[in-house]
Amino acid sequence: MTVHPSLQTYIDAWTHSIEAISELVTPLVEGEWNRATSCPGWSVRDVVSHIIGVECEMLGDPRPIHTLPRDLYHVTDELSRYIEVPVDVRRCHTAPEMTSELEYTIIRRSRQLRNESRDPETMIRTALGGAQMTLEKALRLRAFDVWVHEQDLRRALDKPGNLDSPAALVTRDVLLDGLAKVVAKDAGAPPESAVVFDVHGPLEFMRTVRVDADGKGTVSGSPSLGPAATLTLDWETYFLLACGRARPETLADRIKTEGDQGLAQAILREFAITP
């Protein structure tokens, strides 16, 4: 039984990141599990619970039957309520219970992925009650989600790392997929203009968003000689903004903008592409 090469890339990235999470949290003492993260209302324990819950759903496990408290300020709609159930049900779990369940879930999910023989274009129903998507896209998004939560944990625990890991590369590409919409539609860059993003740090890349005469944006790796705006920032700042983990004003000293300042600020205000 052979896993398709395009799937293996995302499986390897997911494996690297979720094993890093296990290594991060295994030595934590009870109090450290309660540290706040940049996810509203969630502690370290809650982030790990979320990861366990999604992977169990991908395994086909039944969802827990649980009634949420009414005073969770960060639960504001049906999606957040759906996401919160497997998190809240584990809030009373001890550190050994958390690490044991995480380890067991990783073992089960890794076995499932090793035996994955379906075509990448196979349509599957995603976790979190989502619509159907291809198997390849689902695995890509799992690598992305797990890496972003790995970084949430690292910041909460003050243990930076893996900013250039395989899943970081997947995350870069997922975030770049949303960049054209941010510039052309959300920020309203004028037709026949270009905006350059110069990103440095552990992951270095330069991308240009070109807006055509109809206002449609496309992303390319070729530079622009006369961009309307240029934004220079480090990779960590880029993904913190794109994943909604920070507001531009809190990271202003890490962002350099040139050209049309109104457009640059509009782009930064609209930069977050995750819910």
From TrEMBL:
Pfam families noted in UniProt: MDMPI_C, MDMPI_N
Domain (Mycothiol-dependent maleylpyruvate isomerase metal-binding): residue spans on this chain: 15-154
Domain MDMPI C-terminal, first and last residues per copy: 172-265
Isomerase among keywords: yes
Signal peptide: none
Gene3D superfamilies: dinb family like domain
GO terms for MF: isomerase activity
Record-given protein name: Maleylpyruvate isomerase family mycothiol-dependent enzyme
Organism per entry: Streptomyces lycii
